[in-house]
Hints:
The complex is a heterodimer.
Chain A: E1 2-11, E2 14-24, E3 29-33, H1 40-47, E4 55-60, H2 69-73, E5 76-79, H3 91-101, H4 107-114, H5 130-143, E6 148-152, H6 160-175, E7 179-183, H7 187-190, E8 196-201, E9 204-210, H8 211-216, E10 218-221, E11 231-237, E12 243-248, H9 259-283
Parallel strand pairs in A: 3-7, 3-8, 5-6, 6-7
Antiparallel strand pairs in A: 1-2, 1-4, 8-9, 10-12, 11-12
Helix pairs in contact in A: 4-5, 5-6
Chain B: H1 2-8, H2 12-37, H3 53-56, H4 59-101, H5 104-111, H6 115-148, H7 167-186, H8 189-217, E1 220-222, E2 232-239, E3 245-246, H9 248-255, E4 273-279, H10 284-312
Amino acid sequence: xxxxxxxxxxxxxxxxxxxxxxxxxxxxxxxxxxxxxxxxxxxxxxxxxxxxxxxxxxxxxxxxxxxxxxxxxxxxxxxxxxxxxxxxxxxxxxxxxxxxxxxxxxxxxxxxxxxxxxxxxxxxxxxxxxxxxxxxxxxxxxxxxxxxxxxxxxxxxxxxxxxxxxxxxxxxxxxxxxxxxxxxxxxxxxxxxxxxxxxxxxxxxxxxxxxxxxxxxxxxxxxxxxxxxxxxxxxxxxxxxxxxxxxxxxxxxxxxxxxxxxxxxxxxxxxxxxxxxxxxxxxx
Amino acid sequence: xxxxxxxxxxxxxxxxxxxxxxxxxxxxxxxxxxxxxxxxxxxxxxxxxxxxxxxxxxxxxxxxxxxxxxxxxxxxxxxxxxxxxxxxxxxxxxxxxxxxxxxxxxxxxxxxxxxxxxxxxxxxxxxxxxxxxxxxxxxxxxxxxxxxxxxxxxxxxxxxxxxxxxxxxxxxxxxxxxxxxxxxxxxxxxxxxxxxxxxxxxxxxxxxxxxxxxxxxxxxxxxxxxxxxxxxxxxxxxxxxxxxxxxxxxxxxxxxxxxxxxxxxxxxxxxxxxxxxxxxxxxxxxxxxxxxxxxxxxxxxxxxxxxxxxxxxxxx
Lengths: 284, 316
């Protein structure tokens, strides 16, 4: 479980995360989504102890990763945004290295994850495609047998097929009881994989709910529709110059949204609120 | 053993280069030393002073020996001194600067629960190799020194101090420590190399200056006859008729131009004599132990700071 209380992280003058309080429960796949600079990577880097919070508290599986980093890392498998493997080493070298520096590393489990993907373990990492390198990172993270898997935008550089493979492996891990936190922009693809949705924007949590409830509790309506008594979240751009409105409603109007539309609606709401706030400041 | 090999696998190119360089250094030096020792010259001919008549027969061989020493022996001695230093820089830069530059630390530090253990496990075998190379280079330097001044024990001889003996592993340790620390702070190879080079130069200069100051504290006064081959000459002084040793400035103030008439090894009519301030060769082991200890301590301190940097910095 990841729990934060008033967590903030500032880089020079800019806050990447501002006073965030959230809880990611054990089990399943939590999708961490938001625009660039929303603080998704920062949150994951704070969890693994790569960054230190500016303020607030953070607990990963009950452990503060700043004070007890070793204990926190021992419960985390991490896949960074860009595959940070040794280009001149083979996949097997990496598995051996992981086995040497991580107590309890399960190389057999990692190899089993790689075998169906046809990635030769004797190949040098530099010879593998970006997708294969990400799969190697994921296999090693799974080999740690950690109860929590943090995947930092691993789909960014993958082709559609590689994305599918990657998400399938992540889903299998979650089905085996691992808690998976996945930050990504690929909303349409994670809809099938994620159980929970956490939208970050403007350095804060914009939305947090299960995927199923997110879709069930919202409707997409067209401009001009009757909206009396309905909580309108925001209007957001659709395809081909269309504008849609995301509203909080269970059924009976419009149509059910996709996960992407829920996210777009809340991001648009945050953008509108920020614009209004700036307007008020200017007027004052 | 397999664990160490796996941990050191990312550094295999540098370690392989270190083994090759070390092997070439030892084998090359062994060949040169064997060759220099094969010159058939009686030991007494190296003692200087009034050489025995038989030594005149070896003048040609001694000239050839001197030539061999200059053209091959000295470069080999320099190689024995330089190799551990170069290997220390290369391994120090590869330890962290390259890892951080290529962001492989993101992988390693997300896998290893303790960064300190990760660094320790990599540093220990590298240090063992570096110290072995340093001691080998230092020992070879002593052997070359004994071939250069054959009548003096290299451990009672200040000539070549700092370029041989245990100073070499001490310097290698300092060089490795500085380049590792700078690499950890800067996180880029080329800037780390340049900054390390400057800091290493300064560190060695400071250590040698400090050591020179300590050596001066061991100085004694004596006449030219008392100054041995292995002693470290510091400066000349004047011995007064009362047996006191004073500087040239003091002597001019007291005795005027009388001082200019003094010749080496003679006592003037007024009782003044030229004398020397020097450090006896038997003080060499203590002096070299202090210098080596200072360098080694600097190395250990910088390595300690590297652990601190690794525990606190970002892996990118």
